[in-house]
TrEMBL record:
<dbReference type="InterPro" id="IPR006370">
    <property type="entry name" value="HB_polyprenyltransferase-like"/>
</dbReference>
<dbReference type="GO" id="GO:0008299">
    <property type="term" value="P:isoprenoid biosynthetic process"/>
</dbReference>
<dbReference type="GO" id="GO:0006744">
    <property type="term" value="P:ubiquinone biosynthetic process"/>
</dbReference>
<keyword id="KW-1133">Transmembrane helix</keyword>
<keyword id="KW-0414">Isoprene biosynthesis</keyword>
<protein>
    <recommendedName>
        <fullName>4-hydroxybenzoate polyprenyltransferase, mitochondrial</fullName>
        <ecNumber>2.5.1.39</ecNumber>
    </recommendedName>
</protein>
<dbReference type="GO" id="GO:0008412">
    <property type="term" value="F:4-hydroxybenzoate polyprenyltransferase activity"/>
</dbReference>
<dbReference type="GO" id="GO:0102930">
    <property type="term" value="F:4-hydroxybenzoate geranyltransferase activity"/>
</dbReference>
<keyword id="KW-0831">Ubiquinone biosynthesis</keyword>
<dbReference type="GO" id="GO:0005743">
    <property type="term" value="C:mitochondrial inner membrane"/>
</dbReference>
<dbReference type="InterPro" id="IPR000537">
    <property type="entry name" value="UbiA_prenyltransferase"/>
</dbReference>
<keyword id="KW-0812">Transmembrane</keyword>
<feature type="transmembrane region" description="Helical">
    <location>
        <begin position="205"/>
        <end position="225"/>
    </location>
</feature>
<feature type="region of interest" description="Disordered">
    <location>
        <begin position="89"/>
        <end position="109"/>
    </location>
</feature>
<comment type="pathway">
    <text>Cofactor biosynthesis; ubiquinone biosynthesis.</text>
</comment>
<feature type="transmembrane region" description="Helical">
    <location>
        <begin position="281"/>
        <end position="298"/>
    </location>
</feature>
<feature type="transmembrane region" description="Helical">
    <location>
        <begin position="329"/>
        <end position="350"/>
    </location>
</feature>
Amino acid sequence: MLAAARRRASAARASTVEACARALASGSATRARASACANAARGTWAEASTSTPPRAAHASSFVARRPRTGDGEYFRSFAASASTSHSSRVKADEEASSASSAATPAPEAENTWVDRVVPSSLVPYAKLVRLDRPIGTALLAWPCFWSIALAADAGALPDARLLGLFGVGALLLRGAGCTVNDLWDRDIDNKVSRTRNRPIASGAVSVPKAILFLGAQLALGLGVLVQLNDYSKILGASSLALVAAYPAMKRITNYPQAFLGLTFNWGALLGWAAVHGSCDWGAVLPLYASGVAWTLVYDTIYAHQDKHDDAKVGIKSTALHFGKDTKKYLGAFALAGTSALCASGAYVGLDYPFYVGVATATSHLFWQIATVDLDDREDCAAKFRSNSTYGALVFAGIVAGKVF
């Protein structure tokens, strides 16, 4: 912006000098006009160089000692020189502006426990599945745990074996989802400051190797799935279509966070099915809906980290779509999610400790919404990570409502 202002001012002064040359050449210039020309010339020379060239000194004293003849010729020569200097200045400013608007160099990759513990040859793969960022696994696992706890018999704790299986399954499916996402987004991630060091975007993992690695993850996930009942196997396998399609939603709709909610909360259906061999839709659909609403809250906050880069590369999000009204929408989603949770708990007959847990979790969610600075990447990331607390509070409320 400053460079553009300088170019406009310099162009105006150069134009004045050229007009002076024409006026003097025709003999119509007055002494006052000559003085104005000298001032314009001084301004043009000052823009062109930090030192004072001989012609600038000559121009500044032109009124006192300008020649009686040849004024027009002199100023035409001076104007040509000033115009050349102006053109050089414009070119330099344009080059500087172009350089400043170029992509910021990729930041140094964050050093995490993965870099210290995992063998160096495996670090890119560990980072591809976000092993160094466990919050994603937790957000995928909590709806599974809620459903398993909700399906438990009255007075009983949730099945520990199923909790363990679903925990491992969440880790594997989240890793597979990240791999699919990074394969889709490899030509976009390297244009976004936060993601340009991701393994595929940076070239640390090639596309063929990433596809082979994805196959290995899905094979391990299948090993978990086959330990469930037949109904759960079919229901669980059907979620892969959502996992594969999610990255495309960021290019198609302003609501990819809603689609992520459908994907990430599939465990709210699957957990109950793993316990009972079928779904009681009166219990699991409200639970599923509450999870989708929750995802709309936390992933919209998450998307605000990248909103400026996303706008440049054509990625859609609720963060961009809601804009300044984001917090109003987040509040509405939080209320809808709480209502759905209460409906699910009431359907299965949970007692008052459940509602205490839900109220506490909802308070935490509204604290996030009220205090998050949507223009501060670090604060958005911190609030996003705090959603594991919300998931834990809801889980504790369901267990307490069953046991007490």
